[in-house]
Amino acid sequence: MNLNKVFVLGRLTADPQLRSTAGGAQVASFSVATNRVWNDASGAKKEAVEFHNIVIWGRQAEVASRFLTKGSLVLIEGRLQTRDWEGKDGQKRRTTEIICERMQLGPRPAAKNSGDGFAPKAGDKKSDSGESAQSLPTVNIEDADNLPPEEIKEEDLPF
């Protein structure tokens, strides 16, 4: 039996890039940073950062490009895939990516200068002021590829 399964919980290093294939399929890509913290032999606290390239397809790609921004917390479930190609300089290149199968969005930051307690709308830009995030339920987009587009309305989303 074989298993190729990856779970990554981290923050986006940049806004997702949404593209379309020649066949019209939507694909988004972005990088997620994860931190590892440990104590060395002398008891000093150490930290290391890993960066993971994420590729996401279909309806989930559209959702990711619309609701995720640099610094957003996201949980990615997927599989590892390695690609080979030849660069413009003739050199062989290789990269390993996580192909997203399910995505869960983290909480949205609290709205700046808003006393209503609601998170910003999808079109609003996130504040870089380091405001604390409001506790909101996460959205599991597990079956987004199977939902008709007309069933998902912006006003129905909890953030």
Automatic annotation (TrEMBL):
A motif (Important for interaction with partner proteins) lies at residues 154-159. PROSITE patterns: SSB. Residues 102-159 are annotated as: Disordered. GO terms for biological process: DNA recombination; DNA repair; DNA replication. CDD domains: SSB_OBF. Keywords: DNA damage, DNA recombination, DNA repair, DNA replication, DNA-binding. InterPro entries: NA-bd_OB-fold, Primosome_PriB/ssb, ssDNA-bd. Homotetramer. This is Single-stranded DNA-binding protein.
